[in-house]
Amino acid sequence: MTTFVITGASGQLGRLVIDVLLRRVPAERIVAAVRNIERASDIAALGVQVRQADYNHPASLEAAFQGADRLLLISSSEIGQRTRQHQAVIDAAKRSGVKRLAYTSVLHADTSVLALAQEHRETEAAIHDSGLPFVLLRNGWYTENYTAGMASALSMGAVYGCAGEGRIASAARADYAEAAATILTSDDPDGQIYELAGDSAYTLSDFAAAISRQVGKTINYVNLPEADYRTALIGAGLPEPLAGLLADSDTGASQGALFDDGRQLSQLLGRPTTGLDAAIKAAL
Fold this sequence. Notes:
Layout: E1 4-7, H1 12-22, E2 30-34, H2 41-44, E3 49-52, H3 58-64, E4 70-73, H4 82-96, E5 100-106, H5 117-130, E6 134-139, H6 144-147, H7 150-156, E7 158-161, H8 173-184, E8 193-196, H9 204-215, E9 220-223, H10 226-235, H11 240-254, H12 264-269, H13 276-283
Parallel strand pairs: 1-2, 1-4, 2-3, 4-5, 5-6, 6-8, 7-9
Helix pairs in contact: 1-8, 3-4, 4-5, 9-13, 10-11
């Protein structure tokens, strides 16, 4: 009986992965590894095992991974700390006898110009060096990264960014979660690398136009220099590291870093990925 462990299980992606797994395997075979057990009471109520696992406390990781056959390492959200944290997970997985490790990396991590790709490259190298059987899920952009800012766009009458005419092949977070659950429960060969992105791509001008169509008023796209966009994000209340990351990612998008037309994601899902219009409608 295969046991599945999901790290970061109380986060947005992790909860969605567990939802999909519950439709495929018995709850008692799923372990939700979370930093704060008290905040995962809703997961425990589903019959899922909840274990405390903190990326910053290696001893907790090894205990959480006991008996695990397949482990999904969902990348940490702590920019600048992730390589160290992920190494702790990899080491604990090896000591615990995990039989396969899946990791949520970033699209085209090996060649990406995105600043955030560096820690993913370092983590992928650590996974290779560990000797663990592995699968790499190189996730593209979540459409929610943009739809989350729609309230501001509606109030200001504009979408701001610095992506130029770069095409973004994003998909819904739920699409990536379903793909992760599919890989975890499959018997595909180890060592696979999946470049996961949406079926169709759009520019931020297209995004603004799609919002306009649904709300019945004109929302423009305003393209800023990267430094100005970063300053605007900080002015809107975002922490400086996150503002810098988002601005850098938009610049990367202008250079093609968020585009892929291989359709590996929809192939895994056995259906089309969630389209932009559907994502905007859901967010509205």
